[in-house]
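Q: Structure for this?
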Amino acid sequence: MNSFDSSNGEEMSIDSAAQTNSLASVASAHTAARQPGNAPMGSGLEARGIHAWFGKHHALENVSLDFASGTVTALIGPSGCGKSTFIRTLNRMHEFIPSAAMAGEVLLDGKDIYSKGTDVTKIRLQIGMVFQKPNPFPSMTIGENVLSGLKLAQLKMSNKEDLMQECLERAGLWNEVKDRLGAHAGGLSGGQQQRLCIARALAVKPKVLLMDEPCSALDPGSTLRIEDTIGQLAQTMTIIIVTHNMQQAARVSDYTAFFLSEGGPGNMIEVGPTNEMFSRPRDQRTENYVSGRFG
Amino acid sequence: MTTKPAAPAPREITTKPRLSDRIFRGTVTGVGMLSLAILTLIGLFLALRGFQTFKTEGFHFITGVKWESVTSDSGKVTNNFGVGAMLIGTVLIAAVALVVGVPLSVLTALFLTFYAPERIKKFMVSVVDLMAAFPSILYGLWGFFILMPMVQYWAGLLYEYLRWIPIFNAPQPFFERSPFVAGMVLAIMIIPIVTSVSREIFAQTPLDRIQAAYALGATKWGMIKAVVFPFGSSGVVGGAMLGLGRAFGETVAVFTVLNIVFKVNFHILYGFGGNVASMIILKWGEAVGDETKALLAAGFILFVLTLLVNMLANFIVKRTLKSGK
């Protein structure tokens, strides 16, 4: 697979020097506002030596990353570099693809989520996920969607109404839907649907939230709202976000990890505080990518 | 100030299709209309031939429960034809078939779609499809010799414990060749079509919804309840209606298993009953004159019943589609 065939080139400015500087300044402004690791209310997640295969195709090679409590980590890199595959190994969604295999360990609170005898549904309750394409349950109302996770996991609900409101508020959707909680979710706009999916993920109170390009199907206005939401959420949980949009990575994340596949399996090239990754990356390939020379 | 120019009249947009396209279009339209025409002609044939019966018997033909043609010594023929008992039997037997067959089919379809390993799945799909092609007389014989003894035992249990529900009661504990047995045989016969339609629709459940459910910590069963059933319910209803069509019209298997008696029997466990199709085949051989016409009229009733069920099915499918998607 050619790793340089990314389709997101249009997101990048040609004026690479200016681009890098502006991204770095965005990132440093963000980091100044909220120091990474200062809000250790969520839970840490550690990935150790993750490999992933699809059949014989080796998609991801030896990725180790620590996600500290209360931080936002952005995973960036061109298409086909394995970042989505990686994020899906973190809550065991990877194994749904037939022929998919993995090696390594993912530690949540120090326990390997792949260890024998683990109830995978309990893992996914603690590590929530928001997908690229908004996927609310169309047969349920807006309110039912928010609470669907509790119902699916057969958790008991006290104060349904309060929980519904709290989650919708945290997802930044409450004001838009409070008068039509009984309406079907299919009638919402794409951006609203995605925020509904975030609210739905929050209702089960996960410690970690994985976001796989949550804004790639949305308009700029909705994207901005979701980025605001991410900023709010990061105070109480660990967030890992895959994004093709480097501006977004700079705006929302404390740490950034750069993934790249150079013909072979995808590797994690470099990880660091977001402002450093955009201002003075250590690796030449990272610099090439963040400055828009490829990708 | 300038006035807005009047909007032009919309242009007529036409195209001149190529010859090959015209030929193909003609063929497709012709064949499509042909099946409609055949169906209409069959309905017309039955209605016309049965017309006299409808005229002489009137509404009594549907409500009446006797079927007799008596020739007196003077040669005068007195007819008394009514399909009421058989209609009730048709509905009862089909209901038993649906109540037993649809859950079995849905569970089979779920197993094949979400649980079965690939190799077992392929094998079972072909076996289930083969079941659909099986001649119904074989189902009838198998039902008579193999299934009936078992079903009699189950009927005994139902009679023992659920007798307080009127349809499970019986004047005497005589359970051989009952509508219940016939319904069981039909249940087996409709499994292939209902399973196959359900399987098709379950397999089309959008992957992103399935993943959404799993990502929220759903168990497989939870995912199926939250995602697969809402999505697939209309398909299951459609499949069940196809099965119902078969159950209404099934002749030979019912004829083989059931003890056909021209009397209303609401006690499904009790050993006699009938349905319209099997009545026609029972009486056809010896029928002459007016009775032949009456049998064709009965056929027309069955035709209309099936049509109504299909229309109802369409309505239900459309309504569930609207709320489900």
